[in-house]
Amino acid sequence: MTILYDEGQQAIATESRRVLEARVDKDALLPLLEATGEYHRPFWDTAREQGWTALALPEAEGGLGLGLIELGLIAHQAGRSISGAPFLTSSFGASKAIELFGSTAQKARWLPGLASGEIIGAIAFAAGPDALPARPDVTFTGDRLEGTVRGVSAGLAADIAIVFANGPGMPVLALVELAGAQRAAVPSFDNSRLIADIGFSGVPAETLAVGSTARDAALRILALQAVVTAHEQTGGAEALMEIARDYALTRKAFGQPIGAFQSVKHRIAELYGLVELARANCIHAAAREGAADFITAAAAARLSATEAYDTAARDCIQIHGGIGVTWEIGLHLHMRRARSLAIEQGSSLFWEDVLVDQLAGEAA
Amino acid sequence: MSDLEAYRTTAAAWLASMAPSFGRAARKGLSEADDLALGRRYQKAKFAAGYAGINWPTEYGGQGLGHLEKVTFDAEEMKHGFPSFYFGISLGMPVPVLMQFGSDKDFVKERVLKALQGEEIWCQLFSEPSGGSDLAGLRTKAEPDGNGWKINGQKVWTSWAHYSDYGVIVVRTDPTVPKHKGLTYFWVDMKAPGVTVRPIKLAGGDSHVNEVFFDDVKITDDHRMSPVGGGFAVAIATLMIERYVATDSAGFGPHLDLFVDLAKDTQLNGRPAIKDGRIRQQIARNYAMRSGLDSINVRARLMMQAGMMPGPEGSLNKLVAVRSRQKLSELALDLQGSDGFLFDEHASQKEDWASSWINAPTGRIAGGSDETLLNTIAEKVLGLPQDHRPDKGIPFNQIPA
Fold it and tell me: Which of A65, A82, A159, A327 would you call most buried, defined as having the most Cβ atoms within 10 angstroms of its Cβ?
């Protein structure tokens, strides 16, 4: 069952939008594209100062005891403004892994720092196209990790990572401090995602879950993150739809605003449809956290949000014509982000399979 | 168990008890006349059991419950294939509008009670040969006649008019003012002298829509449901009800579960089609689309329940759902290959892929074409400019033909 936002939740949406619109602009984001290892510090400082890092963690662990619905609202606004760092999602994923599957000692060690934002977490599950590989490249033996995880978002800045590793005859969900790992920056089309290849040579790690539990746990973490990302994608798509609408109202050709031509106005109306479907799926998925159909709801949100953001990026630029492809106007910031978010936590190909497995009653 | 779940359980049990008499199996092989008669008995049974007019005021014979109970019941009811579609339009739009805008309350109450029990059926006389998407361009006219009015003209695509006792109608009462300002809203007796109903056979083989001709049909002024010249607003109010009454994320075609079952049961390239990536992608995409609409609709009902106005996103329902259903139905036939030729023109669009496919174009045109809906979203929701309209602001009778 989906929900209507209550007053407190609406206030979170309004306030986070106000703060982000005041502190983030494209002129600060454009230079980040041309540097590796850089992110927009004012964004992350804002997230910490506003308590967004603590939002979805339990009060006992230094969190605010709210959930996916509230974090989703923040992520939506972050998506509208193009968030300057990937940590809102990456640290949330690491925090949930520790909160749900960690020992008391592990929680006490890491959660307060993650809640304050002092510690940054990353999720390192994927091997290329496989968001949750049957046989991960990284091995876990004798409490040590060996091997390389490629293309980890937030990897250049994270203090800890949750790794899906190949243990002795079974998968392992492991928690590792990255101080002892080798990190190589991956030059990317969206460099503020801080993407790194992370190499482990005998780096000590601790287990969070083992065997089939590890796989279920990893999928659950991905789904939780996917719902946050889906909100972010929906926010980005919504912003692009509004930018396209505003441009179509002001730009004139053939003696009238281009928005008066059906080829343009229908294109924008179709974007509205994609944004609203994505938003509706996001609200539903966030409200299903912990329910039996959560994975299904998360997959649906992820698929519709990816479609909305990618399509909005394509069409918004198309509607702008030549000015749309310039560096300065910055629409490519959204286009780049639409793609990086589409890949993080598994592409549509992954989530389509997850969803159909759920619907067809097959093991995921 | 929540109140709503308790309601669902009770309703489901009652519906199951009705299934042998009125359900899918009981209807098999019936002529349309017999099926309608069965439908009337089913509607009466619903009324007696307290499942007619679930969210209507008790003073009109309704149950005074909320939208959530209504939707809950509808979802359960849909599982059994009852003959309820004869009353879908009647109880969906015209009768609620009559409750809202009818002036003679005793008359209204009598009509509503009969309609709720399936004894009388109402139709909605809006579209015309020259006024479909351009509703306000309609030409059927009502002229003053003594103390009342005289109607002449033609309506078209009127669902169930051939079985209807009454209809609500929008007509032109003043051709000398701009087109939206010269319309008035009435109810009419479909059995009155001068009303002729002629069924139209549609591409899929069925004939539930009609042409309706009005030749000097005389009505008294108490049939009027809007101020003279104020009919367009009531017509829009009718269509707004439609936006959330007529919602089905399956686009009035089969449930996605049926496609999943088909994909599991069909061998493609030596393995179940559910393993085929092309099929999986379509299942996933359709699921995501439908779950989004479901969420939009549930939120709309929660808002109505809370006394708020639902957001404009409800206008996406038909646009998104029906064209997806059209493509999915094509794919379902592809999946059946040479087994997909079999066609039963009496099959249900909700359960049969060929029936869903051949009737899908109707769904994309009726109740606002895709293009009209996109225009509405662009203009009313997003504030984009209107199309170039040469008829704007000039008297109706001076619009170039």
Answer: A82
